[in-house]
Design a protein that fits this description.
It is built from 14 helices and no strands. By secondary structure, the protein is an all-alpha fold. It has a domain of 43 residues. This is AI-2E family transporter.
Length: 351
């Protein structure tokens, strides 16, 4: 029986191989187009995936083991995210940005400190115009890393809303989401397991572990500056919290200049005290915590973290603190998978 559709009998000009290639190209092109359109909100989806990994042990314990209501647990996790993460992060970064902008617009206080250092050391350090330009550049750079805060409040609410909405459906449709990853990602089962383990280690080391290290470092730095009478220790403690994410420079970027400030004011004993506490206590606490947490929460090499931070923050903003090291780790994992499978292919062994 002939089909009534006149297009069925029309000969297609493409071979099956060409149709396959064009299908893949179409999928890649559409995915790239969607990624380009959603680039402004990419941080929301990345943050949702990271928080899904962070909270999944809680989800498994409450939903799969204790059989609690899925919807109530998902809403509870969203509330924890807002109260514990979103609101404090917004407050801290707003404080940092506002103070940087204030310093950039009115550098007279900073210039007074610099002039005192010049008189004490006998060296001419800089001019007021240069200081103002440097501060403006620093403020603009930090603003580019925190686009959700530097832009409108509506944009911030949209990104947070997308993050929470994505988290909700990742938890509510957990089985469908995980099966989709196994079905559509072009990797073998053991490779997916390695990538999943790398994701878990990176999130543990660079989210839970690094945040804990940064909190301890920020508190110690703030208390040290308060004890030695440095002005505005709360603000500099917040700055130390963010600086502690850098595995090489870290909090010395804060308490080092604070010691110079006290020296410029003629308080040599207080300056020496800040340096002693910084070198003896703060740096050593940082080193001990990083070693302990690296073993307990994810064995991530410091070089991977450093390269990932530089790469991630430049591309993804503040969320790059986690995504950057994850990209480097995934690259190394896939290189190892390629080496293993290529060697097995050469020897004729099954992969």
């Amino acid at each position: 029986m002939k089909s009534s559709d006149p297009f069925v009998a029309v000969e297609n000009i493409y071979t099956p191989r060409q149709r396959y290639v064009l299908l893949v190209a179409s999928l890649v092109g559409l995915a790239a187009l969607m990624a380009f359109g959603l680039a402004q909100y990419l941080t929301a989806f990345l943050a949702a995936g990271i928080l899904f990994v962070v909270f999944r042990p809680w989800w498994v314990a409450l939903v799969h083991r204790r059989r609690w209501n899925r919807r109530l647990v998902a809403i509870g996790l969203l509330l924890v995210t807002v109260v514990v993460l979103v609101i404090p992060f917004y407050a801290l970064t707003s404080l940092l940005l506002d103070r940087l902008i204030a310093f950039a617009r009115n550098p007279e206080q900073l210039m007074g400190v610099i002039h005192k250092l010049e008189r004490a050391t006998g060296f001419t350090l800089t001019e007021q115009l240069n200081v103002r330009q440097v501060l403006l550049q620093v403020a603009q750079k930090v603003s580019s890393w925190l686009p959700t805060l530097a832009s409108s409040a509506l944009n911030f609410l949209v990104i947070v809303g997308l993050m929470l909405f994505t988290m909700y459906y990742m938890f509510m449709q957990e089985t469908f989401f995980l099966l989709g990853l196994h079905r559509y990602l072009p990797f073998r089962g053991e490779t997916l397991q390695e990538l999943g383990e790398s994701l878990k280690n990176n999130v543990s080391a660079n989210v839970l572990g690094q945040v804990l290290v940064s909190v301890v470092q920020g508190i110690l730095t703030g208390l040290t500056l308060w004890f030695f009478a440095v002005p505005d220790p709360l603000f500099w403690g917040v700055v130390a919290f963010f600086a502690a994410f850098l595995p090489v420079l870290g909090t010395p970027l804060v308490w080092g200049p604070a010691a110079l400030y006290q020296f410029s004011q003629g308080h040599n004993g207080q300056a020496l005290g800040i340096l002693l506490v910084g070198f003896i206590l703060i740096i050593n606490v940082d080193n001990v915590l990083r070693i302990v947490l690296a073993k307990r929460m994810g064995n991530i090499h410091p070089l991977i973290t450093l390269v990932g931070l530089v790469l991630g923050v430049e591309i993804f903003g503040i969320i790059g603190l986690v995504v950057g090291p994850l990209l480097v780790s995934y690259f190394l994992v896939l290189m190892e998978v390629f080496r293993r499978e290529n060697r097995a292919h050469k020897t004729g062994q099954p992969t």
